[in-house]
Write a structure and sequence with these properties.
seven-stranded antiparallel sheet; mainly beta; nine-stranded mixed sheet; single chain
Length: about 230
C-alpha cells in the first residue's frame, strides 16, 4: 500500500516571524486522519525570521530531533547545553521527565529553515539527555545515511524508540533502494527538491507512506533531500 500526501494538504500557520507547515496534528491544527504514523508524532517544517525564535519552553516524554536545512538555530537548554545547529548537524534531545530549552535564529539577515521532528518514546520517564552529531553531504550523497536509531549504530544519534531515521541527497542518476521488512512501514518526507519514489513524482513538502510493499525505490532526483523513517 502506497499513500501520497501532497505538501498542500498539510496544516499551516503563519505568525509573521514563524511560517510552519505541519505533517501531523499540532497546536491549533487538528486532523484525526493525521495524528501520527507509528511512533512518528511530529514533522514541523519551520521557517524562522532573522533574530526571532522560541523562548524557554518545556518538553516531556518525547524524542526530539532538529534537522536544519538552511541557516542556523541557536540552542540553549536546562541541561547546560548550548550551540548553533547548522545544516549537516543532527540534534537529539530525549525529554524524559522534563527539560526546558530555547531556539533562536542567530542571523540578522538570513531566514532559518528546519524540520522539527518528534518521536514518541518506548517508555515514559528517565533522565533527559542531549546529543549532537554531524553528517556531511558526502555521507548522504546518492544513498540513505542512518542518522538516528535505537542503538546508535553506524555513528547515528540514539533515540529511545524502535525507529530508524535516514537522510539522503539525490540528483540525476543517483538512486537507492531500501527493503521494507515484515511488520515495518516507511514514511518518506521530501525536504528539498523533487524526486521519484516508487514511480511517483514528489516535490518539496510532499510525503509518501509505504506498508506491505517490498521496497522503497528512490530515483530521478532534482536537488532532492529526503528523510526516511522506518517505523513499526
Amino acid at each position: 500500500m502506497i499513500t501520497l500526501r501532497k505538501a498542500t494538504e498539510r496544516g499551516h500557520a503563519n505568525h509573521g516571524w514563524l511560517d510552519s507547515h505541519f505533517s501531523f496534528s499540532f497546536a491549533e491544527y487538528y486532523d484525526p486522519a493525521h495524528m501520527y504514523y507509528g511512533a512518528l508524532r511530529v514533522i514541523n517544517d519551520d521557517r524562522i525570521a532573522p533574530g526571532m525564535g522560541f523562548g524557554m519552553h518545556p518538553h516531556q516524554d518525547m524524542e526530539i530531533i532538529t534537522y536544519v536545512l538552511s541557516g542556523g538555530i541557536a540552542h540553549k537548554d536546562s541541561m547546560g547545553n548550548g550551540s548553533v545547529i547548522l545544516p549537516g548537524n543532527v540534534q537529539r534531545m530525549s525529554a524524559g521527565t522534563g527539560l526546558r530549552h530555547s531556539e533562536y535564529n542567530p542571523s540578522n539577515d538570513t531566514e532559518t529553515h528546519l524540520l522539527q521532528i518528534w518521536i514518541l518514546p518506548a517508555q515514559k520517564g528517565g533522565a533527559p539527555s542531549y546529543e549532537e552529531k554531524t553528517f556531511s553531504d558526502a555521507d548522504k550523497r546518492g544513498q540513505l545515511r542512518l542518522i538516528a536509531s535505537p542503538t546508535g549504530e553506524a555513528g547515528s544519534v540514539t533515540i529511545l524508540q524502535d525507529v530508524k531515521l535516514y537522510a539522503g541527497l539525490f540528483d540525476g542518476e543517483e538512486h537507492a533502494e531500501m527493503p521494507i521488512l515484515p511488520g515495518r512501514k516507511l514514511y518518506l518526507h521530501v525536504a528539498k527538491g523533487q524526486v521519484q519514489i516508487n514511480g511517483l513524482v514528489l516535490d518539496a513538502g510532499d510525503a509518501i507512506m509505504l506498508k506491505q510493499e517490498d521496497a522503497l525505490k528512490i530515483q530521478n532526483g532534482q536537488a532532492a533531500e529526503v528523510l526516511v523513517f522506518d517505523v513499526f
